[in-house]
Amino acid sequence: MTYQMRDVRLFESFSDPDRADLVQFMHERHYAVGEMVCTRGEPGNTMMVIVEGSLSVVVPGKDNQPSEIARLAQGAVLGEMFCIDPAPRPVTVMANEPATVLELGRDDLTKMRQEAPRAAAALIGAVFREVLRRMRRVDDRVEREQFAEDTRDLNAGSIRAKGSTLPGPWEACFARLRGSA
């Protein structure tokens, strides 16, 4: 299993010995088609790595019917933030084909901190980097959406410009942006 973990982005910075230590603390789980891996709202206390098969990420959709929002394949990691902060699971995950996952629980992480502190530190560092990467993506998305909104406001302003009550310098600025100056 250590070899398969080389292809998992979360563990790319791990040394081979750290990957081997990590795998020693993980538990192999098998899921049949349609079997629930975890349920939305239940306490999250495990991280999972898909080593075979795929899983569907499901949320309640229209009329509370399940709606698949993602499909996770081999090498995907889910629940890594629960290593740091146990919280209710935000989604339901189920197997859409026979699947095998390696699971690391909070108790396993505590034991790993005592018996393989270097691997535990590598894991916590990797999880923090992943959380920061996600935060940056959210910041980028907010910035793009804000830019798009500002652009819509400018375009709307160009429509109103004919009877605009903007101060002269602003009107000239908007005119230059519209290319009409």
Structure report:
The chain has a domain at 2-115: Sandwich (Jelly Rolls). Helices cover 43% and strands 23% of the residues. The chain contains five helices and eight strands; from the N terminus they run ααββββββββααα. The protein has a four-stranded antiparallel β-sheet. Strands 2-7-4-5 form a four-stranded antiparallel β-sheet, with no helix packed on it. Helix 2 (16-24) crosses helix 4 and helix 3 packs across helix 4. The longest helix has 44 residues, at 117-160.
Low-confidence stretches: none
Tell the overall outline.
globular
Strand count, sense and barrel status of the largest sheet are: 4 strands, antiparallel
Q: What is Rg?
A: 24 Å
Mean pLDDT: 84
The DSSP helix count reads 5
Number of strands: 8
Helix content: 40-55%
- Which CATH architecture of the domain at 2-115 is right? Sandwich
Strand composition percent: 15-25%
CATH topology tier name of the domain at 2-115: Jelly Rolls
